[in-house]
Amino acid sequence: MAGNDTGPDGKPQKPKLSSGGGQLRLSLSDQSILRATIGDRVAKRVEQSHPEIAASRLKQASEKAISEKKNRILSENIAFDPDTDEDAKNLPGADAARKYREVLQKALTDADHIHHRVVIEQLAKEKIPIKTASIQLFAPVAAKLGELWCEDDIDFVQVAVASSRLNIIVNQLVHKAKSVLPVQRNGRKVLLARTSGGNHTLGLTIVAACFDDAGWDVEGGAETEANDALMRQLGTSNFHLLGLSVGATSAVDECKEILSRSRKYSYNPTIRTAVGGPAVSYDKYAFENIGADIIAVSALEAVERANMAFA
């Protein structure tokens, strides 16, 4: 019968031909298979003979990916505004941090790499708390760079260089702050990680700084991905909280699985879980039913709710 792939003996059947109007015809099922097979092979042969076609398709795919990323960056920066959020505005050193936004942006995009090193020394002398600098300076400047890229005022190479410099500045200031102003520990430990394929590292660095400032022992962070290695880490130490940064709303199911596995493998059977990041800031409600104890749209909210959960 047309459309069957195997015969009574279980062996593959050859495509059947039916007759109609004096002509031999393939069944609809076999026509579909044949079109797909020929179409795929023809496309590959054409691309091999005409590399400009393959290059054009690759360029189109790249431009589409960049466009989608730009739209995501624009949407990510809507949820939390440090200039209007009351808690963010009242952070110690907030006014001083805001004054450095233009200086920092120029240092990140300037052709002369020496400027970002000067900024490190200037900020270190100001003694602005890392949490304040992260929320009132680093995050807004990173958002502004994203906007400039989306508007084609700077190119991808400039964005990449600026991101690298910003990470250097943040990491060095975090190190300097720890050596100068040790924070009293509260005995609680958090493990931070990001979903697979994400590059939302600055946000996690800011979250780590905020938890550290609140007295938490912080492990993981921007370079830690939620995978099997993370589960092994959960199983060997008594973490009170797992914080997961999510880069895309399409990762809802992935998050749900990670949170479920974390409770299964955790050394601490009462571990709490928190989710945040760009995707949560963009669509918090998409993550309501994944089993997280805390859903936060900003680093400040994540730390505040975590402290309340363990009060």
Terminal residue distance: 70 Å
Oligomeric state, counting identical vs distinct chains: single chain
> Sheet with the most strands?
5 strands, parallel
What helical percentage do the residues reach? 55-70%
Strand content range: 5-15%
Outline the low-pLDDT stretches. Answer: 14-24, 70-78
Helix-strand makeup class: alpha/beta
**Number of DSSP strand runs:** 7
Tell me, briefly, the overall form.
globular
Mean pLDDT: 78
Number of helices: 13
Radius of gyration: 26 Å
Strand order of the largest sheet: 4-3-5-6-7
Strand-and-helix sequence, N→C? EEHHHHHHHHEHEHEHEHEH
Task: Describe the model.
The chain has 311 residues and is of the alpha/beta class. It contains 13 helices and 7 strands. A 5-stranded parallel beta sheet has the order 4-3-5-6-7, sandwiched between helices. Helix 5 crosses helix 7 and helix 7 (130-150) runs antiparallel to helix 8. The longest helix has 26 residues, at 51-76. The chain is globular.
